[in-house]
Specification:
407 residues; four-stranded antiparallel β-sheet; two-stranded antiparallel ribbon; 3 helices; 26 strands; flat
Length: 407
């Protein structure tokens, strides 16, 4: 287990360290002599990065020369490490010391009592980001002027001064179209959209010239076809929406319906969303809930639960063991719990950072392992409560012992 908070300065990193072993926590009241046998260093982890770790030095290992790997004696600390603090509220002091993260807490952003909720106008929601109240804009809007009172005033899809992002200005006279300055080669701007005049049925040869309103004198088109735009004129036969010319024979028109459903509500598995798209034997062709396109669904490991849902019956809490069998929500007698589905059976589990340390399911997972100094990081792992040692992110707070200090 490493340090309990990422810092921006190496000085703080050296002076505010976390104990990661129960043995170290149990002896936290004194700086025992054997503490000098513990190294705090950066060990390799699976993804190639590093993680703080305690280790016992190998006798064959050369004496480290780097200051960061020098053995450190650690003593109990009663101070909150940055960016954590103990901030009162209208209900009084919090239950646990150092429980507020000033970088992310919306009611104590950057400092105790600095509430983002109070500062925000009714049209804007402010969140605490890196210790500053920041406007949380809806999709497609930005707060480019930094002023909270006028909310998220910028549309980056159309604003030529902020095209695609704040401060990204287009050249004079160039439109901002769908978040980009101007149109790509081969396209022109027509009524706020970039179109290809050689193939666009609504803008064929010129902006606003629609083939539907200007059909050619070419006779009636084959079944499920129409005359659309090709090479800038409205004389190219095209399939109507939802139909395909899958046999490449215009004499029978676009003969395959790509949207027709069978008696069970599934589409054609041999032309799934397009001609020649064939689903695997175990797959079905349909539009899944939350999607817009017809495609092959439910690969190996998933089960079709109605014409709209693919489910892993081993893990899906809404289809646990069988389609439609939903695991219950959090029971009314406990908090910090959530429903689970494992191997097709419903169960309950504690939320991250929570635990049922008293063994009484009626009050749920009552223990906060990230903040409780009597159960810090695990049930029964106790910090030095008498000395005021807080638990931060599941680790009892310590600091480098001062020169000659003993407790």
């Amino acid at each position: 287990m490493g340090t309990f908070v990422e810092t921006r300065t190496s000085t703080w990193r050296r002076r505010t360290l976390a104990v990661a072993a129960v043995a170290a926590i149990a002896s936290a009241a004194s700086c025992a002599q054997n503490e000098r046998d513990l190294f705090f260093g950066a060990g390799e982890i699976a993804d190639g990065g590093s993680s703080g770790s305690f280790a016992t030095p190998d006798a064959a290992t050369p004496e480290p020369s780097d200051e960061a790997s020098t053995p450190l004696a650690l003593c109990v600390s009663s101070e909150c490490p940055a960016p954590y603090a103990t901030c009162p509220s209208f209900t009084g002091l919090p239950r646990y010391k150092c429980s507020i993260n000033l970088l992310t807490d919306r009611e104590n952003c950057g400092s105790c009592g600095n509430s983002c909720a109070v500062q925000a106008p009714s049209s804007v929601r402010l969140e605490c980001v890196e210790g500053e109240c920041t406007a949380l804009c809806p999709m497609g809007r930005l707060n480019c002027n930094g002023v909270i009172d006028d909310g998220c005033e910028t549309d980056p899809l159309t604003d030529a001064k902020n095209c695609g992002g704040c401060g990204l200005a287009c050249a004079p006279g160039v439109e901002c179209i769908e978040g980009a300055c101007g149109c790509p080669p081969g396209q022109v701007a027509c009524n706020g959209k970039c179109v290809d005049l050689t193939s666009d049925d609504a803008n064929c040869g010129a902006c606003g010239f629609a083939c539907a309103a200007n059909p050619p004198d070419a006779g009636t088109p084959p079944d499920h076809m129409f005359y659309g735009c090709g090479n800038g004129t409205c004389r190219t036969l095209k399939c109507q929406a939802g139909w395909g010319d899958c046999n490449d024979d215009l004499s029978d028109g676009c003969e395959v319906s790509l949207t027709a459903k069978d008696a069970n509500g599934f589409n054609d598995p041999n032309n799934c969303g397009g001609c020649g798209i064939v689903c695997a034997p175990n797959e079905k062709c349909f539009v899944a809930f939350g999607q817009s396109a017809i495609k092959c669904q439910c690969p190996t490991g998933q089960t079709v639960c109605g014409a709209g849902t693919c489910a892993n019956l081993q893990t899906d809490i809404n289809n646990c063991g069988s389609c439609g069998y939903r695991c219950g929500g959090i029971p009314p007698y406990g908090q910090g719990l959530h429903a689970t589905c494992e191997r097709g059976r419903c169960g309950l589990a504690c939320d991250d950072g929570k635990s049922d340390c008293n063994g009484n399911i009626e009050d749920g997972c009552e223990t906060d392992l990230l903040r409780d100094p009597r159960n810090c990081g695990g049930c029964g792992v106790t910090c030095d409560v008498a000395a005021g040692q807080p638990c931060v992110n599941g680790v009892c707070v310590t600091q480098e012992c001062q020169g000659g200090e003993t407790k």
